[in-house]
Amino acid sequence: MTKLPSPYRPRALAPIRRVPELDYDVLDELLGYALRRAQVGMFLAFHAATRGMDITPPRFTALVMVGANPGIGQSVLGKVLGIARSGAMLLTDWMEERGLVERRRRPEDARSWGVHLTPRGERFVAAMKRRVVAEDRKRAAVLDARERRELLRLLNKLAR
Amino acid sequence: MTKLPSPYRPRALAPIRRVPELDYDVLDELLGYALRRAQVGMFLAFHAATRGMDITPPRFTALVMVGANPGIGQSVLGKVLGIARSGAMLLTDWMEERGLVERRRRPEDARSWGVHLTPRGERFVAAMKRRVVAEDRKRAAVLDARERRELLRLLNKLAR
DNA sequence: CGGAGACTGTTATAGAGCATTACAATCTGC
DNA sequence: GCAGATTGTAATGCTCTATAACAGTCTCCG
Predict the structure, then answer these.
(1) B11-56 pLDDT, tens per residue?
(2) Between B121 and which of A98, B9, B117, B139 could a Cys-Cys bridge form, CB atoms 3.0 to 4.6 Å apart?
(3) What integer best gives the mean pLDDT of chain B?
């Protein structure tokens, strides 16, 4: 039905392996390093959970935000994602090419477009969220409920 | 003294800005998203702390590991960093071009090289570690000592 | 001991992702 | 009503990393 420009190539990403014989020096004391290791693990789980959907974390975030904030502009999308406007536009192109979103003119501002989910996009986002949320919980299952809440709290505090 | 192939161009990376008017939907419930936000913040601090040194997180990790494990091979380096062998080699090239490390033949295995810090590399790594550790502490100062330890523990648990 | 298979570093190639810059249309405020 | 900011867009380029192929070397087992 819709043409898919890039023929889905799964991005293989290697896990960060812990090698017991090695001395990790200050790395073990740095929050930044611990964050990166944890995040790579999470990314691998994310990737597995969305297999076949051609989804990446930025695409996921963009789609969720469009779903929750219909009519959001591309500049705001860029801010939320921490990327430049031009990148947000390419991302929007990608979503539009797949028939997941559409751009609609805004009557109150002729410069900007509002981005909206299509019916197909709604279904896609719902399925995607279900998978990702489930995987996130599964992955976080090594922590008990209290630890999970505490981790979330500390991370948000750190991110300010 | 040593020629620097790429003329140090700082990689501007945008922060992930929180937009209060927006609905973040499931994102606020996902550990993965919180991890990413925290990590981007940390990366920005890291980048500021190493300004002028042309350092990135993988380069930092590689240099620290070489310093703490003299004679480490490039394949192991790749495993530790979570990148392919070819990437570890380019990284080693980069360090060598700057006179920070040298490759030495291993008598016990003629296939592999051992990577070692040069005297210059030793000084560089010491300065780099000082800066990064200080910045990491500063950045983590929003947490008290107990929270910091707890965060580190939870992150390591999550990364398995 | 000799060959199969695994492992090392290396090279070349390719692609994703993103920034930067420049531009035109439009909005806002003095 | 004009200067300056903002929006989407387009073109270009760079960095990081993977993939695949290759030769040299090691290991291990028949």
Answers:
(1) 557 788 899 999 999 999 999 999 999 999 999 999 999 998 999 9
(2) B117
(3) 89
What is the band of B7 on the pLDDT scale with cuts at 50, 70, 90? very low
Tokens for A84?
Answer: 């430049």
What integer pLDDT is reported at residue A159 of this predicted model?
85
Name the minimum distance, in Å, from the CA of B98 to any CA of chain A.
22
Q: pTM value?
A: 0.90
Query: For strand A109-117 and strand B109-117, is the pairing parallel, antiparallel, or unpaired?
Result: unpaired
Q: Does B145 touch chain A (CB under 8 A)?
A: no
Average of pLDDT values for B69-77?
95
A-chain residues near B17 (CB < 8 A) = 79-80, 82
Distance from CA of A5 to the nearest CA of B (A): 27
* Protein residue closest via CA to C1' of C16: A11
| CB proximity B70 to A under 8 Å | no
Four-residue CA torsion sign, A48, A53, A59, A61: negative
pLDDT digits (tens, 9 = 90+) for A70-96: 999 999 999 999 999 999 999 999 999
The answer to whether B103 touches B121, Cβ cutoff 8 Å, is no
Cβ-nearest to A76 among B19, B27, B129: B19
Q: A135-157 burial string, b = 16+ CB within 10 Å, else e?
A: bbeebbeebeeebbebbbebbee
